[in-house]
3-dehydroquinate synthase
Amino acid sequence: MQSITSSSYAVHFNQRAYDALNTHLSEKTYSKIFILVDENTHTHCLPNFLAQVRGDYDFEIIEIESGEENKNIETCTGVWNALSELDGDRKSLVINLGGGVLTDLGGFVASTFKRGIDFINVPTTLLSMVDASVGGKTGVDLGPLKNQIGVINQPQMVLIITSFLQTLEERQLRSGFAEMLKHGLIQNKAYWEALKKVQDFIHIDDLIYDSVVIKNEVVLQDPTEQNLRKILNYGHTLGHAIESYFLESKTHKTLLHGEAIGIGMILEAYLSKELLGLPEEELKDIKSTFLSYYDKVVFSKENITTILSLLKFDKKNSHGNINFVLLSAIGTPEIDITIPDELYEGAFAYYADH
């Protein structure tokens, strides 16, 4: 597969990714090279990754705990301290080998250590390959509130090595697939139709490539999310609130990102029908497709009230308004839509209804 050029870097795939990395390392004179991993990628991905590196480099491995609950400033502090203790300086490189939590956090750590050092992202989950691989968003959560702290800063390159997908559980693969479905809904109905036929989430290199192209084209037109890039947040306004609620809950099982935004996309499709005239058959198609991939979640009235209270923390909000991305049709998004409060109950009722 050809490399995809973004604003200041390229996304490379499979063997081309390793070739690009080896060329980059041979041309640069990094004082130190750090590889940030979690316990899963340390075991399942790092040995294969290092086996493909040509040259004699003294890598320092820094391990953090996996999971959204560890995507916080406390974890960053631990990594910053490790970089300092291991003599990291402004000529050091950080390679982030992991999923979206790790690449978001690792990119933020690198962007702020010594006021910014080089980093390379090697996404190892389907979610991070199609979502975190493009756009330069880095950051961490503030308590249960998603991505409240961070900066937009571009890596030196992104390396997508699809064989790492074989290390993932089915649930993780399905989570990443939700972002691919979103790309179809916001940009390309034909792509949406192609995705609906997918049952094997590992051997989908061409579809992963298509998703990266879709996201890259949006980001190139609006790198700092002033207008168009907001369409990438379809399903995420309610989805992030749901994800945050379940992350903090003591009585509910935590939802993965894709599971939460899948619910968000159904809810926001209902709002799209009510406010923008999304055709009824497309609404039904969206609901049935997501429910064919993701288990339905039961929400009590108390759950819904708490979830709606979290909407005020959404990053797209401005001037006191909660701004949504909705669809007038599959492939046709509209941004900065405000929702009358009375519609939320109907959206959750539609999701719950068989």
In short: Residues 170-204+222-352 form a domain with the Dehydroquinate synthase-like, alpha domain fold (CATH 1.20.1090.10). The longest strand covers residues 145-152.
